[in-house]
Amino acid sequence: MIIFGTKATRKLLDKGSFDCPQCNQTTNFEKRRARTWFHLYFIPLIPLKTYPAYVECKACKGTFVEGVLNAATGATSDQIRAEFETAALAIFARMAWADGKIEPEEVDAIEQVVNMMCARDFTRAEVEAEIAAAKDSLDDALSVATRVGNMLNDEGKEMIVQAVFQIAAADGDFAREEEDTLLEIGAGLGLRPAHVRGLIRDLVEQAQRQTNPSTH
Hints:
alpha+beta; TerB-like; 2 domains; five-stranded antiparallel β-sheet; 22% strand
């Protein structure tokens, strides 16, 4: 009888101490990466899928995205959240410049989206200042998104993609340059191009249904 199937492994990548956001104290962690294999007679032979690395707190057993290790020692959850919120606004500002011009509708959309997503309230002046700074910044959308990607799980990354699309389409046109920038942002977040294209396709179809609702 041939015995075959799939098997999951969880490889230890690193261990040490970190500031656990759930325990609210410094404790030990293990960083692991899960992978599924095709096995024959319980021997893993062919790798099927590799999952993003994750961090497990050895005290509370909570699991977190890898970016939790990037927080400076002693950093509070408020400081980590503030770093995310600043980076999110920077991503949105760079998306607005993707087609080379800023429309008032895009500024409105950035203000609405960033304040809906973030705990703090960004003023109109802060949004406009970030947009102005993004125009000549050496940090492109890819590099800024990379800083955010380590802080988010897959659902959070998809939420950023959806928010960025909403900003890009706020002027009624989703240009090719905007799609390219959105793919760069997705790459920085750690999403596969095919995944991002699938999200874009679904979002475009959703926007079209809202613009041209069925009369039936």
